[in-house]
Amino acid sequence: MSETQRDPCPHRIIEDAGTSFAMGVGGSSIYNYILGARKSEIGRRKRGGFQSVRMNAPAQAGKFAVWGGLFSTFDCTIYGLA
Predict the structure, then answer these.
(1) Which of 8, 18, 28, 34 is the most exposed place for a label (fewest CB within 10 A)?
(2) What confidence tens digit (pLDDT) does each residue in 1-47 have?
(3) Where are the transmembrane segments (predicted)?
(4) Are the C-beta atoms of residues 63 and 54 closer than 8 Å to each other?
(5) Is the Cβ–Cβ distance between 30 and 61 less than 8 Å?
(6) Is 10 exposed, middle or buried (0-12, 13-18, 19+ CB in 10 A)?
(7) How far apart are CA 44 and CA 40, in angstroms?
């Protein structure tokens, strides 16, 4: 998609932050499930993995959304100055 076909910048920042949050949820869920399952005792690996996802994935996804929103903000700023 070329630069002229995307939404104008105020809407684009929100869209990119939301997309980043969704990608962060997916990636951090997989990562935290594996990490939680590895650190749990043998009979409780599945429960430990899901508990780790529930506790850590939203915070990591939020951090990823902030990064995506800031990146898009700087991109729009540079695009507006050029």
Answers:
(1) 8
(2) 555 666 678 889 999 999 999 999 999 999 999 999 999 999 999 99
(3) none
(4) no
(5) no
(6) exposed
(7) 6
Residue 41 backbone class (left: φ over 0; alpha: ψ -120 to 50; beta: rest): beta
Among all chains, which residue has been given the structure tokens 């399952």?
37
What pLDDT, on a 0 to 100 scale, did the predictor assign at position 1? 55
Q: Are 80 and 12 in contact (CB under 8 A)?
A: no
- Angle separating helix axes 9-39 and 45-81, nearest 10 degrees: 160
Residue 80: band (very low, low, confident or very high) from pLDDT cuts 50, 70, 90 = confident
